Amino acid sequence: MKSEKLLRSLGGVSDELIDESMVPRRHPLVRLAALAACVLVLLVGMYPFLRGMGDSGDASVPGVTFHGALYELWDDGNNAITDRLELPVPIGGALIGEQVGSLPDYGDIYAYAPLAGKNGTVPAALYLLYADGDWQYMVFTGFYTIGNDNDYVEAETLLQVYGILKPEDIVSVTHDGETLDAAAFYERLIGAEAMGSADYGEMIVSGAGSQAEEEALYEAAQEGVGRLRLQTAGGLVAWMEYYPTTGYLRWNDCCFEVGNDLFPTP
Description:
By secondary structure, this protein is α+β, with helices and mostly antiparallel strands. The protein contains 8 helices and 13 strands. A 7-stranded antiparallel beta sheet has the order 8-7-10-11-12-13-9. Strands 1-2-6-5-4-3 form a 6-stranded antiparallel beta sheet, with no helix packed on it.
């Protein structure tokens, strides 16, 4: 389970406080706030695959594993998810591909037809789950080992999950109305050094001699953070966080050093 996603799923906690609590601390001076957050996760997180989407505020969303990846289950009546990911509703018709598996106690898994066969050998970013006459979306949330907040994969693997095997598989990458060159973005991301979110957090506060200095470094790293919207040729929409101050992009809790010049300086 991811502490950040759990805290967001509980609701009533501001994004700023959650973001601050997520900065990893690996040196001997363990902060009380971090300890409290860990205790909260241990007390509440008894079900390791109960993972709420960051913007949903819904702590009841079940999570499942398939082909070594984690997914959340959402019905097509959840506007917060279908609107954010721009998923077609209702589920049916041409969206339903062939059956590719099943999950005990959940139902049968079908390919999402627009993505079928486009993601190589890795799991897909989207599947459909059918049980008792109802369809649900299976939305990819990442490759995680339970209890490890530092897991990551290389960008090539993550791109393939979304059916991106070549630059032409990206329709657009945008930020606040500004469009990036899709081919250049693909090449930059493929060549980027990858790290886990815990290592990224430790890196941005390294060298600090006090808690106040750590907080200042962390706040500075957030300056100019932007949400990037990526659309694939298969019709999927993915959201990423870009930190121009540090030159890193975070996608499904994997951090990639893409440089601080993704967007031209005015």
